[in-house]
């Protein structure tokens, strides 16, 4: 039996180009239209902050429930393309239902459908990438994936801002549905025979077996990293929706959508070079880069409380671009380091994504609850304190996984 580690992938230009297009088009599809949903519910449907927080948490909670099973399925299935296309279709249906039948139950049900789809995209795209290029080329390729993803976010946010301002906030959800359909076409263009399913699950031996739960529970470094992810996203997830709601207080639905697009565009433009840079630098060490991502988050939260100027608040999103750009690349690479040779890459990635989704979903519900009983400054400062705790946990409890990986290979 030939070990998969001895295989040198040679993906075609067609498959790599299709992967680029898929990452570009999956930009907002992977996360739904969370920040715009908050504005739509607040300005157009007149929902209360607590109800908005609950609605935005439903997708995250569903993703939490489905994320680990999705990772396990990605490891086991040879039909990664088909399931990814189906997930995109499900996202499109949910987006259209949100505006066609905007009742409480339909919107909540649509968020459930989006949560199911979102659970699949992360591990599936990472697995397809690893199966196409192999572990040796993964650093640069993940950096490229994230670069195209953020570029797609910039274009989508600009389109969403224009549509929301000049047409209707409902048009933003039509845009999401359209991007879902186009992303499906891009995924279909990837050649299935070029996806090495053994490499895609992080296996170095086709006969390898393992218990994913045992692997998770016996790796303290992985558990510390998962906990840090929970705290990071608990502090981070609610900041942008809260900023959008704060900016919406002085504007109508069109103006609010335009402000939100500006916030997203600023961050995403910064993420484009940051992701490419991290993809090139990650081979020299992961932890120092990860610490930088965690440092900027509490600083960002505090800065939001120091000004009420719209331009300055939008400019602060540069820090979001730095933190998210680094985290988006390193979260995949560090899981790859810790699971190399186990065949559990996507299972563990799904579990880590569960931790991320848990932090994000609880963040929105917590922030909505706290905002209804205090003010924006208090919420931002509380979230900043949680971000500082996440930073300390990474500093003290998360090792340099690249060095661990190198030692294990020797």
Model description:
This protein has one domain: Up-down Bundle (Growth Hormone, Chain: A). The protein has 18 helices and no strands. The protein has helices spanning 13-25, 34-44, 49-76, 80-100, 104-133, 138-166, 171-188, 197-200, 212-217, 220-236, 239-248, 253-281, 287-304, 310-315, 317-339, 345-373, 376-397, 401-409. The chain is globular. The two termini are 22 Å apart.
Give the tags.
410 residues; disordered C terminus; 18 helices; disordered N terminus; 79% helix; Growth Hormone, Chain: A; mainly alpha
The CATH topology name reads: Growth Hormone, Chain: A
Distance between the termini: 22 Å
Oligomeric state of the chains in view: single chain
The sequence of SSEs as H and E is HHHHHHHHHHHHHHHHHH
Estimate what percentage of residues fall within beta strands: under 5%
Largest sheet: none
Kindly report the name of the CATH homologous superfamily.
Answer: MFS general substrate transporter like domains
Summarize the structure.
By secondary structure, the chain is mainly α. The protein has a single domain (14-195, 212-409), classed as MFS general substrate transporter like domains (Growth Hormone, Chain: A, Up-down Bundle), CATH 1.20.1250.
